[in-house]
């Protein structure tokens, strides 16, 4: 494959920490993307306050995004393709869906921003909090296990297969529980917009396709790398992402 092979490995994440002129490219694209996301959101918030259209759904969405952009991704292991798409693809769709019709006609977007009953507000808040705990907990457990394989998981000694694979905590529920947290959290960003338009749901749909594709590649790579150990892990933890579904 010549010159194309190292470029392909870099794109798919085979190279762990690709750098250019001393700059960590994965870190740059993810962090720049997350900061830009927050700045765009705050701009939309300022416009809503200015024109008097600030709503509960807008407040919820701003809170969700502020939390995830500040604390959500420091333990996330990702590939360059994921980092690049986070900054480029999501901006193209996100800026349009969050603008409440400023770049799309109202009859296409529908009423994306609306107020809730107080019960709806707390349901959305509790759902986001729960999904954030899954998202952060799964990634944190993996990080802790890599640092100290004997560290307690949910207050108990970890179950380890072949001395290499964690099968406790979230990783005893699904083999890619970090992807489960990702998908549930992505959905929590869209739910405050209601069901009047499919546009706010671009992100969770896009992420679902991307992560299922990535999970398939992860499965093949792990089966080749760990062999019998991976087969035993699959027997103990049969669910890939969604417990009892997939």
UniProtKB/TrEMBL annotation:
Q: What topology does it adopt in the membrane?
A: Multi-pass membrane protein
Q: In which pathway does it act?
A: Steroid biosynthesis
E.C. code: 1.3.1.70
Query: TM segments?
Result: 20-40, 75-93
Main subcellular localisation: membrane
| Record keyword Flavoprotein present | no
Per UniProt, what is one GO molecular function of this protein? Delta14-sterol reductase activity
Where does this protein have coiled-coil stretches? none
Q: Does the keyword Lipid biosynthesis apply?
A: yes
- Identify the keywords attached in UniProt to this record, alphabetized: Lipid biosynthesis, Lipid metabolism, Membrane, NADP, Oxidoreductase, Steroid biosynthesis, Steroid metabolism, Sterol biosynthesis, Sterol metabolism, Transmembrane, Transmembrane helix
**CC per GO annotation:** endoplasmic reticulum membrane
Q: InterPro entries from the entry?
A: ERG24_DHCR-like (IPR001171), Sterol_reductase_CS (IPR018083)
Q: Where in the cell is it found?
A: Membrane
Annotated GO biological process: sterol biosynthetic process
Q: Which family does it belong to?
A: Belongs to the ERG4/ERG24 family.
**Name the UniProt record assigns to this protein:** Delta(14)-sterol reductase
- Species per Swiss-Prot/TrEMBL record: Gossypium barbadense
